[in-house]
Input
Amino acid sequence: MISQLLSVDDLPDSAVDALLERADEFRQGSTARRRVQNAALLFFEPSLRTRTGFLAAAQRLGWPSPVEVLERRSSEISMPESIADTVAVLTSYFEMLIVRVDKPIDTIATQVPSSVGLVNGGDRGDRAEHPTQALIDFFAMRLLVGDVATMKVALCGDMRMRSARSLLKLLARRQPAELVVVTDPALMPGLELPPDITCRVTDSLDGLDNIDALHAVGVPHLAVPEATRQRLRVDASALGVLSPRGLVFSPMPVIDEVAQNVRSDARMAFLQQSALALPMRMAVLDSL
Output
């Protein structure tokens, strides 16, 4: 297994298979097989699910309560310490670091020795990723719908978002039967689809049918006009594109990606998806 999970690209196919299998074992009540680790969560951007999810995962594994570092050293008379220095110091205190940072994760990864595990909990930049979220999304699709290789999958929203970028990378390697990207031209600048991916790009859910997994990946606030957001929103008419087994997923938070009047529809699977994040995060910590 690897010691640093910065990108989906860091995971060979065998590691993806192992993580999916281990997460399913945890889902069914398996116990940890690794010795206790001392972990720190360095979250320099706001987070709810990822931060508390990894806290819960570590506790379920029987690890000591991880230390949370939510800000860098600074004061009224002192400039903030660099993130690189903060990370370098903490590598001598902990065996595992889970980091969310407002810059590319590889700018600090060089400060972390191979003896210390490092998990990217979401970074920023042109190649920003959220690799554990992609694993969670894939795991949820497989458990709640079926074999991804037989599915027709649609991702709707801004594909430049870090969770979408990681999921696209994973789907390029675990190709569904059909993949559709639903976005808007205004959200395309800077987008680089994985070179090996096979997908169709469209600007509307209209005309799609028999979608087995519809991912509402979201659109950043104020990124596009309301009319565009409406076109990319999963509403009652959008649910008509689903197959008989089709479900709606989201990395969450769900703000307006899904219309309020369909939130109670039984095909909304994002809360089940969020619950399945716990065994996947346990698998990541237990395996690194």
Observations:
- The radius of gyration is 19 Å.
- Residues 131-275 form a domain with the Rossmann fold fold (CATH 3.40.50.1370).
- Residues 13-27 form the longest helix (15 residues).
- Strands lie at 4-5, 39-43, 67-69, 96-100, 117-120, 152-157, 178-182, 200-202, 211-218, 242-249.
